[in-house]
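Subject: Sanity check before I submit

Could someone independently write out the structure tokens for this chain? I want to compare against mine line by line before I put it in a report. The sequence has 265 residues.
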Amino acid sequence: MAAWARAVRGLLLDVSGVLYDSGADGGVPIAGSVEAVSRIKASGLKLRFCTNETQATREKFVKKLQGMGFDISVAEVTAPAPAACRILKERSLRPHLLVHNDLVPEFAEIDKTNPNCVVIGDAAENFTYANLNEAFRVLIGMEKPVLISLGKGRYYKETDGLKLDVGAYMKALEYACDVQAEVVGKPAKTFFESALAEMGVSPQEAIMIGDDIVSDVGGAQRCGMRALQVRTGKYRPCDENHPHVKPDAYVNNLAEAVDVILQQL
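---
Independent answer below. Compare away.
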């Protein structure tokens, strides 16, 4: 019997690399993941999809996953952009956006005139020298630069291979402007706490399942949760020798994790 699978009331699932591998063609589901999500819902366990996805609005992102057969709704998704918008409104911040074109609608109600901060997300092809330099100039011109990053992942996997993630570009701006970014999204503790609150589940009753040893596993464990790493998505064998983060268990895929967890109910 797996001790890590006991006394569970809620599951938090990463999306890219756990449910599906993204790609230029929209991506493909990982074997068994569609059925695994359906089984979780049928079991009565609470469920949240925790993603650092910032290449599309939640509505567009969810519609893509529904098209692959996943039982998922916008209300079940915890994502960085809405959290960033709340921060911007609370602090009267006006962002210069360095994000993917498809994410811009998430910021439709935010004042962007005369920017007093920079928000950076996974801008993909928008990560040009000119765009990065423009963000740099906005930051360096501030007396107290404010840089908000929608995640800090190093890379992620698409169907054609690994791709640099927002964290690499965030670090470039941090270095150039001598500023510490405020991370909204995994692995920030507040991001996981928000997902738990939305489920009404304590950290000790929840398990995070992800493919990122640092953002998914490490972030969840620092919040008091158990965390599993799947051997899909961006997983690499060297993750199992990480000097600081040790998952509560490794599983080959989401389907295997769900098998073990449901056997314990």
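---
OP: Matches mine. For the report I'm noting this point. The CA atoms of residues 98 and 120 lie 5 Å apart.
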